[in-house]
Known about the structure:
Elements: H1 2-17, H2 20-24, E1 35-38, E2 41-44, H3 47-53, H4 58-69, E3 73-74, E4 80-83, H5 88-103, E5 113-118, E6 121-126, E7 132-135
Antiparallel strand pairs: 1-2, 2-4, 3-4, 5-6, 6-7
Helix pairs in contact: 4-5
This protein binds zinc ion.
Zinc ion binds at residues 105, 107-108, 110, 126, 128-129, 131.
Amino acid sequence: MAWKYKYEDMLKRAYEKLPEKTKKETRFEIPKVDSEVQGNRTIVKFFPSLARKINRKPEHLMKFLLRELATTGKTPGKNAIFMGKFSRELMQHKFEKYLREFVLCDQCKKPDTALKKEKGLSFKICEACGAKSSVRSLKK
Ligand SMILES: [Zn+2]
């Protein structure tokens, strides 16, 4: 235990030595979609945590993907299942399309945005720069 304590202490000190700027600016990395074709279906693994990484509801992301892929599917447990064979590249491409439309700020490109509804319209509001842009609502 003594060693562990020392090690953590060392890490802490190393961290404190970093310039202020490095600590604050954590660059947003686009999450990778972990998908796999199984038979006639395509499985996206860890779907809820994928949605959590971009701070969106799994249901919303699912609705978007189903519409984009023009298919049906479901989200039992940790996976999302899409009817049809879709390559990993295509799933990643669609996911990034969702990011651009519903997550990343149009102005500053940061992912710190929230979706809000006002008078039946949906908006993407940036918590970093305050920009507000309308987004389409995904009806069934
Ligand atoms: Zn912004």
